[in-house]
């Protein structure tokens, strides 16, 4: 029985990763791991039910991934992150032909996070 998926995204700079994922998007750092002090970082960030692993290890994954994150209250998320005035991203909300609204943000490492709110049937 499959339960959930935890994607691994490649990062290259710990400070930029934390600035983007924690300061800007509001994720929490759950834990960090290094085999030694001068080794690459592997960490877990989460928010609500979403868990993402971020890795500086070159063999774990390739930069340029895309995640679709199902989201409720996309407008509120957009407002909250817009107030951050993050100088590298100012995403908008787009209506799609497949009846969803989406906000796409690219992290400093080329990974795309697409926050998706599907239409609610009346």
Task: Please provide a written account of the structure.
- The structure is a single chain.
- The chain has 122 residues and is an alpha/beta fold.
- The strands form two sheets. It has a four-stranded mixed beta sheet with strand order 1-4-3-2, with helices on one face. A four-stranded mixed beta sheet has the order 5-8-7-6, with no helix packed on it.
- The longest helix has 11 residues.
What's the structural blueprint in terms of helices and strands?
Layout: E1 8-10, H1 14-24, E2 28-33, E3 42-47, E4 50-55, E5 66-70, H2 74-82, E6 94-95, E7 100-106, E8 112-118
What structural keywords apply?
globular, single chain, alpha/beta, 122 residues, 2 helices, 4-stranded mixed sheet, 8 strands
The count of DSSP E runs of length 2 or more, i.e. the number of strands, is 8
Q: Give a quick account of the main beta sheet: strands, pairing sense, barrel closure.
A: 4 strands, mixed
Strand arrangement across the biggest beta sheet: 1-4-3-2
Overall mean pLDDT score? 94
SS field, number of helical segments: 2
Strand content: 25-35%
Low-confidence stretches: none
Fraction of helical residues: 10-25%
Computed Rg: 15 Å
Shape designation: globular
- First CA to last CA: what distance? 33 Å
Structural class: alpha/beta
Output the helix-strand order: EHEEEEHEEE
Brief account:
With 122 residues, the chain is α/β, with parallel strands linked by helices. The protein has helices spanning 14-24, 74-82, and strands at 8-10, 28-33, 42-47, 50-55, 66-70, 94-95, 100-106, 112-118. The longest helix has 11 residues, at 14-24.
């Amino acid at each position: 029985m499959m339960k959930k998926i935890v994607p691994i995204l490649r990062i290259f700079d710990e400070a930029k990763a934390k600035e983007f994922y924690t300061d800007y998007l509001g994720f929490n750092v759950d834990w960090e791991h290094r085999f030694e002090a001068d080794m690459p970082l592997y960490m877990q960030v989460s928010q609500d039910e979403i868990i993402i692993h971020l890795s500086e290890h070159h063999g774990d994954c390739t930069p340029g991934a895309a995640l679709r994150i199902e989201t409720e209250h996309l407008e509120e998320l957009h407002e909250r992150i817009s107030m951050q005035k993050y100088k590298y991203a100012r995403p908008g909300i787009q209506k799609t032909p497949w009846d969803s609204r989406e906000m796409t943000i690219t992290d400093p490492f080329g990974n795309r996070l697409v926050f998706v709110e599907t239409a609610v049937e009346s």
